[in-house]
Write a structure and sequence with these properties.
- By secondary structure, the chain is an all-alpha fold.
- It has one domain (about 10-395): Amino acid/polyamine transporter I.
- The chain is about 75% helix and about 0% strand.
- Helix 4 (about 55-65) packs across helix 14, helix 8 (about 140-160) packs across helix 10 (about 200-230) and helix 11 packs parallel to helix 15 (about 370-395).
- The longest helix has about 45 residues, at about 240-285.
Amino acid sequence: MTERAPLSPITLLALGINGIVGVGIFVSPPIVARAFPGALGALVYPAIAIACLPIALGYARLARAFPRDGGPALYAERAFGPRVAFSIGALVWVSALFSTAAVTRALAERLGARVTVIAIALCIGLALINLRGLRLSSWAWTLLTIAKLAPMFVLASLGAFAANTQRAAAPTGTRGAALLSVLFSLQGFEIVPLPAGQVRDPEKTVPRATVLSILFAGVLYALVHLACARAIPALGASTSPIPEAAAALGGSALSRGIAVGVFASIAGIVVGMHAMTPRYLDAITLGDRPTPAPTRAIVVTAVLAALLCSTSSLAQLLNLSSIAVLVQYATTALSLLVLARRPNTGLQPRDAWTVPFSLAVCVVLIAQASRRELLLAAGVAALAVLVALVMTRRNRAPN
């Protein structure tokens, strides 16, 4: 009797929503409001979500053709061979590394004034915990999902009936920073195809979950931003937009409750990212021999995350993460283009219709980054590939 795959359509959709809804929406409203004042800022979220749909559809189509674990690295290996796949795997690790640093910095800013010291302490402390191995449970993941979504559902509902208190203001921020921060808030849908081999009816389930998760997040984020814009007259200067909006719309009790939920969500994301990011590195350096507690990968990831936290601001880390994930999106689109032209891949040339749109979105959004951010992202990516290559040779050398 064939064992039933453990991930149902609902579970996979929850995984996609969890992958998207994290720290970004708790810090992006002021960044967006400075570039797009008033209710206009709410439209940026669904606009970026729709712009990312071709990318999401590309991931979904590849997942249908290759319903196995692996995601971007698997597609690159099929399209370009193992060497390119190794580099893509390293790039995925870099993207996760930037995200880990960003969420760690965000949590540190909420814990005290000595942000750099707190961020480094978090990296070291979580590395020590992860060196003892992982103990995950499904109920904890479910509770974390509720902790993420509940504050935003409450705030969105209150904001829908609130009067507008926003004062007319001229833009004071850059549109590039706003667009990249929104992209950071919406990235994560690419995690859906990763466990395709563990999904029931993956040919249908994976595409649906991929598309629905990003559309759900885009609409929810728009409602949350609209509530913040209506409740906070100077949203661009806010440091805790969601709790502040809750206080304005529902009083201090609701604000405290939402603040706890926001903190729990950010803390949970930080713990999860520090636990999972080293495993990307472990997977590409050990191949099919990953370890329960990847010591070297945990230490290397913690050191680099601490370095990034101490040398970059939260806004810069958001942008760096967005740059890295855009490169990942572009390479996956190119994988689809190559595979759609090959026979016996389960793909047809017409399946590559999303590629031009995906590449155009990636180019336009990457162009919003500064030259310094692009150079820093390229430097860290090159260092990561080098580190991964050295670790691979050491790990696979005969004893």
